[in-house]
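Ticket closed. Logging final result for DUF342 domain-containing protein.
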Amino acid sequence: MDITKAFIKAKQPCADGFRWYVRNAHEDSSYQELLDALVAAGRVQDACWLLTQFGPTDATLDLDELGADDLVFAGTVRVRRGIDITGTLRTGRGLHAEGGIRVGGSLHAGADVHSGGAVTIGEDLMTAGALQAAWSVSVQGNLHCETLRAGWEVHCEGDARMDGHARIGGELRTGGALRCSKQLQVGASLDCGATLQAGQGVEAEGDVRAAMHLLAGWGIRARGDIAAGGAIRVGESLWADGYILAGDGYGVYAGMDVRVDAWESSASVRARRRPEGLRSGWWAGAPPGCQEEEDACAGDSHAA
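Final structure:
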């Protein structure tokens, strides 16, 4: 791709960045050479802007290992061992490492991110494709990916958004909101710092907890408690081996998308004790193998 002064000016760059280009860029510089020069000059955000404006290439960077302060590459990066970046890592297409990926700043990839180890990001992690880690994922900022698969735990201090499904071998914890457009499966507990919303179902081998509302298009199945600081609302069934607990003044609503003739089978609610504030759903008692605890609502087999 040929980058010319007129071509860059047409994209309306900031005045300071355009002055740098006029003074420092060579007429015969390639697209990637210009990105490299911007990064070397400490103008990483300008390099990211340029990549956003002109898009990815089909180039591939193959390395045994990668260690740098910052890297902005317009194509795909493949590393046979690990990646250790102090600042920003930005790729136009995919990022593949057979070892771990550690980035002190943000990681932004234009396609899939694959790691044969752990992924540790100091700021935001954004990928237009899948995020797959053989070990754990730790993100100090926000997380946004298409699908997510991790062998161990996933910790995100900000908001987490998955536009597809997510399957996590260990616990999932977010400091902010959690949104998964499809199925969400967690191998331990799930703890969300704001509203948790799943387009399909939620399944966890431990507790499912949300500091605000807990919403699922299908149902929720937890080996521990299902608890929210706000309302609990699902399209189908709720099943907890522990307790189902909505926030003070809020209700529990199951079967919101179920036909009346399938109410008992598809809108069932099971827990150790009938939830307080159960406003919708068929109370089916304790799960098999669990002792049901009596409460003031005992004897009422369904909710209004």
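The chain is about 15% helix and 35% strand. No further action required.
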